[in-house]
Amino acid sequence: MIIASTHQTSDLFGTPLPVLPGGELLENLARLQAETNFGRVMVNSLGLAVVYTVFSSAVSMMAGYGLAKFRFRGRGVVLGLILVTMMIPMQVLLVPLFQMMASLGWIDSYQAVILPFVASAFGIFLMRQSFLDFPDSLIESARIDGANEFRTFYRIVLPVARPQIAALVIYTFMTQWNAFIWPLLMLNTEDKYTVPVALNTMIGLSRVDYSGLMLGSLIATLPLLILFLVFQRQFIAGLLGGAVKG
Fold first, then answer.
1. pLDDT of residue 117
2. What are phi and psi of 18, to 5 degrees?
3. Long-range pairs of 138-146 with CB within 8 A, sequence gap ≥ 24
4. Which pTM does this prediction carry?
C-alpha cells in the first residue's frame, strides 16, 4: 500500500511490478484532495468517531455495571436479549432503520449515523464481565458512607476497570472509523462524507484510481495504528480480562 501510493496507477499494472517507492506521492496527494476533499472528510470521520466513542462507551459502561451489580427480575433475560442482537446481520436492519431515520427527517445528518448503534452489545457484555469481579463490599461501603450511585460508579468502580475501558474505547473508535454501509446510506452531501465513503467515490465504472485509493487508505490507517500502538497493552489486557471473567 505504501509503495502503490507513491506511483501512478498505470505503473501498478506494468511489468515488472514496482517494489520500491516512486516519486508521485505529492501528485497523488494533490489529486486525492481535489477529488474527495480528503482533509475535510478526515475531520468528519474523526469528529464522528470521537462523539460516537464517548456516547457508546458511556452507555456500555453504565449498562454493564447495572447488569453486573444490580439484582432485578429479568436480568438474565435482558442480558440474553442483548447478546442475541449480536447475531442479527447488519443487512437485515438497513431497511427498517432507514425508514425510521426518514420518518424523523434525519437523512443526511450525523445523528442518524451515530444514534442507531450507540448501544453496543459487545461493549455492554465486555464491561459486564469486567465489573462482575469487582467486590460488592466496596460498593456497599461507599453507599454506607453516603456516596450516591453515580459517585460510587465514577470514583470507585471505573478506576479499577481502566484496562477494559481502554479496550472498549479502541474497539468502539475503530468500529465507527471503519463504518461504511450505514454512512453511505445516510450521508448524501459530499462535505459530510466520512473517509470510507469518500474513498468509495474514487471507484468509477470504467476507471479506478488505485494510487489515490492506496494513499487514502494509508492515511486513514494511521490514526488507528497510532491509537493501537499507544494503548496496545491496555487493549490486550482488557480483552483477555473480559474473556475469562464470569
1. 92
2. -65, 135
3. 139/69
4. 0.86
